[in-house]
Every structure is written in C-alpha cells, then in structure tokens.
C-alpha cells in the first residue's frame, strides 16, 4: 500500500496515455496515406481521361509522350498566379488608403475595379 505522495501505482495512467498517443500516431499516418492515395487516384483518372480524349482516332501509331500539365492545373487548392496578383494589388490599395494617400471614394473605385477584374 502506498501512502500519500508516494510514487508507485501510476502505471495504469501512464499506459493509458501511451496507448492514446500510439493510437493518435496510427490515425494520423492512416489519414496521410489515404490523402496521398486519393490524390494519386484523382490524378490517374484525370490523366487517363486526357489520354483517351487526346488519342481518339489515332492511326495505331504509338502515342507521343504526354507533356506534364502545370502543377497549378493538376493540383486542386493551389492559388493561381492571377489570383496572387489581384491579392497583391488589393494590398497595395489598402496600404495607400491607410497611409492617407487616397480618399475613400478613390479607394472604393479602385476596389470595385479589382473586384470586376478591370485592373491588376
């Protein structure tokens, strides 16, 4: 029997925490593997669809080597370069407004132009 403040019977708690940590690690590894597999299967489906559409009606000659698509087009979720340019332009307009270089009406008109895509 252990008294108050003695260390001796805490193996159950330590074992439980260890098991939870191991289970968390396994769950994270499984989720990462599933994401990687899903990306590959989506890319394979997209490339097989592109190959089928590109080679319909071929004369039996071996198809030319397919050039890889840009990473922006093949990977969903990436921000396109034009979107980045618009965000930078928006930041510059905000900076001018906060510095007091432009008035509210000019700020609103420039932001409207950015939103409509007339200005970059």
Which structural traits does this protein have?
flat, mainly alpha, 120 residues, single chain
Can you walk me through this structure?
It is a single chain. With 120 residues, the protein is mainly alpha-helical. It has two domains: 10-53; 76-120, no CATH class. It has helices spanning 11-54, 71-74, 81-99, 104-116. Helix 3 (81-99) packs antiparallel against helix 4 (104-116). The radius of gyration is 29 Å and the shape is flat. Keywords: Membrane, Transmembrane, Transmembrane helix. The chain crosses the membrane at residues 12-31. Residues 35-77 are annotated as: Disordered.
Layout of secondary structure:
Elements: H1 11-54, H2 71-74, H3 81-99, H4 104-116
Helix pairs in contact: 3-4
Keywords: Membrane, Transmembrane, Transmembrane helix
Region (Disordered): 35-77
Transmembrane segments: 12-31
